[in-house]
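Chapter review: from sequence to fold.
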Amino acid sequence: MVWEDKTAEKFKLLISKIPVFHRHITESVVSKIAEQSAVLRNSSCVQEQDVIGAFFSDVPSPFYSMMVRLLEQNGFDYRKYGYPKNIKS
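The token string follows.
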């Protein structure tokens, strides 16, 4: 599936900052969920909201704060999409 250019760039940058031992699985899972989200929205491309939703969909609690920090540092404005919906501790 096609990704919006700006979203793809920010996603690649964010992925590059994830610890090496989690990088591949994170990229694979988030990409798959983001693409599914775009399909469900009847969109022809993956957009920022799809990537953010994918990250928030199933992040284990120990990685939650790191994910939020990385999203913020890489220009993903998750708050405008209503996240976090459920705060995990």
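Two observations follow directly from the output. The chain has four helices and two strands. Residues 20-40 form the longest helix (21 residues).
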